[in-house]
Design a protein that fits this description.
By secondary structure, this protein is an all-alpha fold. The chain has a domain of 94 residues. The protein is 71% helix and 2% strand. The strands form two sheets. Strands 1-2 form a two-stranded antiparallel sheet. A two-stranded antiparallel sheet has the order 3-4. β3 and β4 form a beta hairpin. α7 runs antiparallel to α20, α8 packs parallel to α11 and α16 packs across α18.
Length: 494
């Protein structure tokens, strides 16, 4: 049985090489073919390495598209193929079922129920496939990686965030971007490789809480060893190195997020970090920190002694989104200062009108843009691809049934993560990861009130975080789980 699988892999490899030779100049094609051959041999020997590679490359390859397919889709297909070939070779093909697959299957069922209502079947199929990819990534990561190998996946996810943040900071400082991103006549809103600041901020916000969780974990170990004089000198040095390393990672990602100038990104990140502080530091300290962060982002009028006026002005109109009277706002004269607010609210109203067309099952997954011309407000002709509010987008496309399944999905994931964290004993690296992923989902849930983050590979980014936790939950490490603090808090984050 292993030989047919091997032949299939050979055929795919030969087709890829043939495409490279035909599409590129000869010298470039030769170089790419040599590198691809070396990478292929490495992956055949260590197939689990495809997952860290996918994690770090995801924000870059998602923008490389051929028709409806992206480079990230290609990497995921390679990962599935490697898992299959390796499983056949070792006779270990299996899938671990549990709560996560069940809640994802429930939402997929809701998408399929809404599918017949779709005007654009291709967009509907793409929307369904996106969630199938998330489920596949979660299932295969926990089968392809051991508990120790999952650390490389986590570090690769953080590395991708650092690279994107560094690129965004460069764009911000050296004013690299389209003219309409110009900011304060001196800077440029950062967008990384996402082409837009809001999804770029969403990606960084879906990474930052994990870096903060590891920073707090290493800081706690370092302080414990410094005050109690426990552990060896090497262990204390590694813990301090972890503080410095993860501190730098969190700092760079935080600066990149700030450079995006995305209010939704700031609000989501503030809530995500606040939850990490809440669970890590206890209810009193964490609650005070969470309250302070939320007050800072919601008030929008903090003292100029502490926050630059440009930041408070940026946050001042958040109350419009959180309040009532959308109709009154969209009827105001459009100016440069209120354009983005009115545009977003106009799409919210369009989504509600769309929902009224089919309250129970919606207009079909992925079909917001297809139906938008029938429900749009005057002056707002561009559908923008989504409603700039995930919950309204889900309601419009899949109706009340889909929205219910969507809420059950993420409520189940939150409950599963909290249960997994309670299973972890002590202040371990594993517990810090789960806490960080909780913060990631808080950011996702809050930022999705103002945007739609299931674009440009970010849905797979979330799936890889969940797959990492699922790997720890299955406990595939041979022998007893080791709680060695020197390993839990390495001197370098990746």
């Amino acid at each position: 049985m292993g030989r047919p699988a091997g032949k299939f892999a050979d055929i795919v490899g030969l087709l890829a090489v043939a495409w490279v030779l035909a599409a590129l100049p000869l010298i470039w094609a030769a170089g790419v073919a040599v590198m691809a051959g070396g990478a292929g041999l490495l992956l055949l020997r260590f197939p689990w390495l495809i997952w860290p590679a996918l994690a770090v490359a995801l924000p870059f390859t998602s923008g490389l598209t051929i028709g409806p397919l992206s480079g990230t889709d290609g990497l995921l297909a390679v990962a599935v193929l490697l898992w299959f070939v390796n499983g056949v070779r070792q006779n270990t093909l299996r899938l671990h079922m549990g709560l996560l697959p069940a809640v994802f299957a429930l939402y997929l069922l809701a998408l399929l129920l809404a599918f017949p209502n779709a005007l654009n079947l291709q967009k509907a199929a793409e929307a369904v496939i996106k969630w199938v990819q998330m489920l596949v990534a979660i299932l295969l990561v926990q089968e392809a990686l051991s508990a120790r190998q999952v650390r490389w996946l986590v570090w690769a996810l953080l590395a991708g965030g650092v690279l994107q943040a560094a690129l965004g900071i460069y764009q911000f400082v050296f004013r690299i971007g389209p003219p309409h991103f110009l900011l304060l006549d001196r800077f440029m809103r950062a967008a990384g490789t996402f082409h837009q600041p809001n999804p770029y901020a969403g990606y960084l916000g879906l990474t930052l809480p994990v870096a903060v969780a590891f920073l707090l974990h290493c800081l706690g170990l370092s302080l414990k060893r410094a005050t109690a004089s426990t552990g060896t000198a090497l262990a204390r040095t590694r813990a301090l190195g972890g503080v410095v390393g993860y501190g730098m990672v969190a700092g760079v990602i935080g600066l990149g997020l700030l450079a995006s100038w995305s209010r939704g990104g700031w609000l989501g990140a503030g809530a995500g970090i606040g939850v990490v502080l809440l669970f890590h530091s206890g209810q009193m300290v964490g609650g005070a920190a969470l309250g302070g962060v939320l007050a800072l982002f919601l008030a929008g009028g903090a003292s100029a002694w502490f926050i630059p006026t440009s930041l408070t002005d940026r946050l001042a109109d958040l109350s419009v989104y959180l309040g009532l009277g959308m109709w009154e706002v969209v009827q105001q004269p459009i100016t440069d200062s209120n354009f983005s607010v009115i545009e977003r609210l106009a799409h919210w109203i369009a989504a509600l009108r769309m929902w009224e067309l089919s309250p129970w099952l919606g207009v079909g997954p992925g079909n917001y843009a297809a139906v938008y011309p029938d429900v749009r407000l005057p002056l707002w002709e561009d559908p923008l691809g989504h409603a700039h509010n995930t919950y309204l987008n889900v309601l419009a496309e899949t109706g009340l049934v889909g929205l219910f399944a969507y809420l059950v999905l993420w409520a189940g994931v939150f409950g599963w993560l909290i249960h997994q964290r309670r299973q972890m004993q002590g202040d371990s690296w594993n517990a810090a990861l789960i806490l960080g992923v909780l913060g990631v989902l808080v950011h996702l849930s809050l930022h999705n009130l103002f945007d739609y983050l299931y674009v440009q590979g970010m849905y797979l980014h979330v799936a890889l975080w969940l797959g990492a936790v699922a790997t720890l939950a299955t406990g595939r490490t041979p022998g007893p789980t080791r709680q060695i603090e020197d390993v839990n808090c390495p001197a370098r984050p990746f």
